[in-house]
Amino acid sequence: MKYIKQFGIILAVSFVGELLKYFIHLPIPASIYGLVIMLLLLATKIIRIEQVKDTGSYLLEIMPIMFIPAAVGLITMWDELKSLWLPLSIITILTTVIVMVTAGRVTQFIIRMEKRRKE
Amino acid sequence: MKELLSSSTYFGVLISLMGYGLGLILKRKFKKTIFNPLLVSIIFVMSALLVLGVDYESYNSGAKYLSYFLTPATVCLAIPLYQQLELLKGNYRAILGGIVSGALASFVSVFALAKLFGLNHEQYVTLLPKSITTAIGMGVSQELGGIVTITVAVIIITGVLGNIMAELVCKLFRIEEPVAKGIALGTSSHAIGTVKAMELGEVEGAMSSLAIAVTGLVTVLGASFFANLM
Fold first, then answer.
1. What is the dihedral of CA A5, A9, A11, A17, to 10 degrees?
2. By three-state DSSP, how is residue B117 classified?
3. pLDDT, tens only, A74-102
4. Are the CB atoms for B41 and B23 separated by under 8 Å?
5. Whether B219 contacts B104, CB under 8 Å
6. Residue B178 and residue A108: Cα distance in Å, rounded?
7. A110, B18, B145, B214 — which has fewest CB within 10 A?
8. Residue B165 and residue B89: Cα distance in Å, rounded?
9. Which of B73, B190, B137 has its CA nearest to residue A31?
10. Closest to B63 (Cα-Cα) out of B10, B132, B26, B116
11. Distance of CA A8 to the CA centre of its chain
12. What is the mean pLDDT of residues B105-124?
């Protein structure tokens, strides 16, 4: 019973996310609306964490395998990619590193600055 | 054999799981970053499909049930985020500052490199949403007049690259604070990077989840401005 109820709550929130996506014309997927709704429901204690935690942890644990089908789908895109593969690869690798370093270093810089100020 | 596999409902899911299992075994045995379970499983499944002569459509007719769970799983990212809500409140300036500068760095670096490689406007806007989650990125690309299938490909490759390189990049550039590691992953490589962040720790996972949503939003707001630059 426990897992049925928990899965039901998670799917209900996903469904409300779909409804929002249908009515709001922005390029925002149902999953992101759902994430925000779930966070609000938890923060306002309308849903207690125990009511979604077990099924939620299970879904999060198996989440990596959910990306496999889409990534394997890259093999069908080769024809479109092959004329551009070199610039695309270089741009993708470089920008990924640049964004990761910028976001991480700026966050760390502000955290440590605020820590020093408090001391 | 080929017909049997192509018509099977479970073959797609099973071979994906086998690939991931193999990745986990290789990772445990060799302890090398390159044996990333996600990367190993992708290469394993691609090779298996080519060797067995099964086309992607047939594979995906079963494997799509894995993708089906992506939305509910993303909704569940709210759970670790909720558990770290105090940390989020205490560090909101650092978190917002990090995400916004990351999103800007993405725009600027894509712009500069697109100029360098002489890409045209269509190719440039195709790459602009490369760091954000697939569904938002597709929408942005479409709106700007990009080539949506290439955007999807680049987004997935970005996610997998972020997932593989995260530990090395954090070490090289001395990103040590768990909050900063999470923000770095979520901002640069969306949900696929977040999976790695969750492996690193609860704080990292929560912050990375938050960064997916906020980076997506910032990118939606900023993309049309940057699209007009070229």
1. 170
2. coil
3. 899 888 888 888 999 999 999 999 999 99
4. yes
5. no
6. 9
7. B145
8. 29
9. B73
10. B10
11. 20
12. 96
With a CB cutoff of 8 Å and minimum separation 6, the contacts of A9 are A47, A51, A52
Mean pLDDT per 10-residue run, chain A (119 residues)? 94 97 88 94 96 95 91 88 89 97 98 91
The Cα–Cα gap between B64 and B209 comes to: 23
Positions of E strands within B95-224: none
CA-wise closest residue to B71 among A10, A27, A95, A69: A10
Q: Which 3-22 residues of chain A touch chain B by CB within 8 A?
A: 7, 10-11, 13-14, 17
Query: What is d(CA B134, CA B58) in angstroms, rounded to the nearest whole number?
Result: 23
User: For residue A44, which phi and psi values (nearest 5 degrees)?
Assistant: -90, 5
Establish if A82 touches chain B: CB-CB under 8 angstroms: no
Task: Give one word for B118, left, alpha or beta, with left for phi > 0 and alpha for psi -120 to 50.
Answer: left
| Whole-angstrom distance, CA of residue B71 vs CA of residue A49 | 19
The predicted pLDDT at position B4 comes to: 85
Residues of B in contact with A24 (CB under 8 A): none
pLDDT tens track for B38-70: 999 999 999 999 999 999 999 999 999 999 999
Helices B178-200 and A85-118: angle between axes, nearest 10 degrees: 120
**Residue B161, burial from CB neighbour count under 10 angstroms (0-12, 13-18, 19+):** buried
When scoring A38, A59, A107 by the number of chain B Cβ atoms within 10 A, the one with the most, hence best to mutate, is: A107
A97: nearest CB among B20, B130, B165: B165
pTM of the shown model: 0.91
Predicted confidence at residue A1, as pLDDT, reads: 80
